[in-house]
Amino acid sequence: MTAKPSRRTAITGGLAGLVALPMAISGCSSAEATSHIEEHGVAPQPFAPSAPIKVAIVLYDGMTALDAIGPYDLMNYVPNLTMQFVAISADPVRTDSGLLALTPTNTFADADQPDVLLVPGGPSAATMSKNPEMLRWVQGAAGEATWVVSVCTGALILGGAQLLEGRPATTHWIAMDALAGFGAQPRPDSRIVRSDNVVTAAGVSAGLDAALWLISMLRGVDAAETAQLCIEYDPQPPFDNGHYGSAKEATRADAKALLAHALKR
Amino acid sequence: MTAKPSRRTAITGGLAGLVALPMAISGCSSAEATSHIEEHGVAPQPFAPSAPIKVAIVLYDGMTALDAIGPYDLMNYVPNLTMQFVAISADPVRTDSGLLALTPTNTFADADQPDVLLVPGGPSAATMSKNPEMLRWVQGAAGEATWVVSVCTGALILGGAQLLEGRPATTHWIAMDALAGFGAQPRPDSRIVRSDNVVTAAGVSAGLDAALWLISMLRGVDAAETAQLCIEYDPQPPFDNGHYGSAKEATRADAKALLAHALKR
């Protein structure tokens, strides 16, 4: 199924009159009762093909690399779209393992105002959701951005910036309760949730699905499908334990133990 | 379907007597006539749980970040497994967009001998497939490694190191002819191909599927499923144009044009 214009039909009433429009998307998904994308409220209009799109991807110590790199590598193939990797300082950030360093292209002080603000998650996201420098910049950038997007526990940073109050939202399954603490309405069975111009994606790899969908909203379905083919995004996971709701109990316990360890690194 | 021991049954005869054992894996895949994983020859035995596993991920200028970061972020959650990012020099490498820099942890001169050698692809892979420093190190490391793995056009570097002669293999769809030039037998409809201990994955995002499967071979299916849940790898692509064989003609043309541009960057 491709995104149809009708999916972006405005629902009147704003946040107070939110109407749930859960939509199952087919693609690679198996037939399940849960929806994989939810849309609420009014979506921004697509950009004109000639209009440049500026994307800011926030970097910080303790983030999860794939949360940022998945969307980045898809958006690489969108014409007339430029990206900046933006951080508190110009120093390379250490991703969650402590092994991989990513170098920002800009600091908060010299970054452009983005059209699309993308906030990745990671074990340190809960800490970052209280960091004044982070919150000040995210709030300012989000206020002027056309789209505000989080991947994984990046939603906690949006929550800390008071961008999720009253909004349906999703995050990594391990942080669903923390998300509720910011006044959001957790949607553990949706891989992508859009509430007006605020898009939240589930854990880590959900950034690929969210970015692909976002490209269709920014530049149309054809542009999204071209980016999809460029990175050959035709997923064939050999196992079926990627969703908490359907994962085996033993897998859940092992994953919780590993993630608890990650939180302490 | 989970990997069964029988899938690793040795086929006698070595390379000269290769027996094709194409196996469709279910998971998220749609029902198609093509197989998504092919296995040939003899697979290495799993490591004992107590045996440390060393992984080397090769970095180089002009590589595609996601080819490396997908597998890295899954392997982050494998107990008793350590990784090094290895490059010709200690300088940060510029990934294909020129925007994102990744910092090696080791140079070829000081890297550990890996148990698993992983070579990502990118627009510069064809050039790197002729780089003497790259080929010397890859050949040496591959000779002692238990597993040799490529993602995307990383297969061309394995080809340049003469590791694919006579072997069935896959790569990004745009490089399938180039792969044949190294004496490999291209498998455009397989997302993952194993020929003895040499594993090749299709374009970019296929590294996630390959790494997940590889973890099951290294440490068993339970470890793979736990890593899968940690990164919530339950893909739901909203569009279905990720495979060249089934992509629309217009999408193919657009993707070729974009990738040709990438090759010139």
From TrEMBL, chains A, B:
Keyword Signal in annotation: yes
Single Gene Ontology BP annotation: regulation of DNA-templated transcription
Keyword terms, alphabetized: Signal
Signal peptide (UniProt feature, chain positions): 1-31
InterPro entries in alphabetical order: Class_I_gatase-like (IPR029062), DJ-1/PfpI (IPR002818), INH-QAR (IPR052158), TAT_signal (IPR006311)
SUPFAM superfamilies xref list: Class I glutamine amidotransferase-like
Domain of life: Bacteria
Annotated DJ-1/PfpI domain residues: 54-214
Record-given protein name: DJ-1/PfpI family protein
Organism: Nocardia coubleae
